[in-house]
Amino acid sequence: MQFFYDQQIRRYLTQFMRLLGEFSVKTGKDRHGVEEYIQVPVRYGDINRMAAHIMKNQSENMINTVPFISVYVTDMQISAERRHNPTHVNKVQVFEKKFDNATGEYVDGEVGNTYTIERYMPVPYDLTVQVDIWTSNTEQKLQLMEQLLVLFNPSINLKTNDNPFDWTNLTYTELVNIVWSVRQVPNGTDDIIDVAALNFNLPIFLNPPAKVKRQTLIHTILNEIKRMKDNSLDEWVPNDPIPNKQWVVVTFEDLKLQVRIEGDRAILLSSNGSLVDDAGNPMSWANKLEPYGELRPGISHLRLRRGEDPSDSSQDIIAVINDLDVENPAVAHISMDEDSLPAATIPAVSAIINPAKNSPGTGLPAAALGQRYLVLNDVPENSAWGITNAKENDIIEFNGSTWVVSFNSIATPSATVLNTMSGLMYEWRYGQWISAYEGAYRNGWWRIYL
Predict the structure, then answer these.
(1) Residue 123, Cβ neighbours under 10 Å: how many?
(2) Owning domain of residue 278
């Protein structure tokens, strides 16, 4: 195993000792009547025997200078109840500001280097720390104990560093036990030094080294190779919902892959629309995207092309990829960008129904003012609807006394309506109602932005 040492336990102890480093005791008054104070030093108690002997002037007759506070570790146990998935790896994307070497300043609104940080699951431990308070008289002890005991009630938070990518930099320490006097501490033949002991629990995490990778992103890929002028690169992503990002744009032009949108799922299909490729292997988003880069959940997105011209991106619908399905590698879970959906041109409908099977009071609520239904078949004569001129694909509406045709599908060439029951948007195009974004997209009519 390659050597590494990040001083993690040392940082926990250092921060703990800093909590104890600002206490003072009052020693009396000077000759002018002004009260005098001395700051109590804090030392790590696991001292080297040779260094301790030198500090005593190489004599057993020397007494330690008091007051002072010593800190040392008495126990360290692995914390099984705080253990999580040991094999978990968390990935974080980091975007630097662009740095202009000519001016020596960062450029606002522009992205520079991009990094991926892979953080591995840390190992939890419970650290037991003892604090000894060394004093020469009861008054010193009372002063220090009073200042300390009100601080820990019973715990206080610790922050080991300011690194925003260290997911273990916050912890706490809790006072769990107090021993008022430890007379058994060897402090020479004289008993003028008194020691009080405080025990603290300190839950900590030890992190294995993280991997930091610098990403080199191609701005776009079309048919594997695409020549573009430098001044047109920023225009390549029209109406970008996440500005100032760099993208790898994958079109699968060589494989002719398709995608089918079903609700909040994007299903990757082969060129012939099946769930297996030409070699008989199951379709997989991860495998097909591997040559181009990593999927970034919440950032990578699909662009679904609408209209009649595949080169027209003005009507693109954007679907953000949240994650890949664990059980089905061909499925990606998506959420639609509401702002990219086509706007409704007519009032919403309550549901899409078959008027021959359903009517007010039979499978549907009682008629009420403003109710609107899109009918899949002609409304039958002599039915509960009381209307005879409603045809297939029309929209009927209750005006308070009777049902009327609100949308005539024969007379209207196009329209967009929201189905409030399903939350889906539908468009009237080419003589049929179709979902605004659901369905299969052939190659050239969709692409993925990594």
Answers:
(1) 17
(2) 217-343+441-449
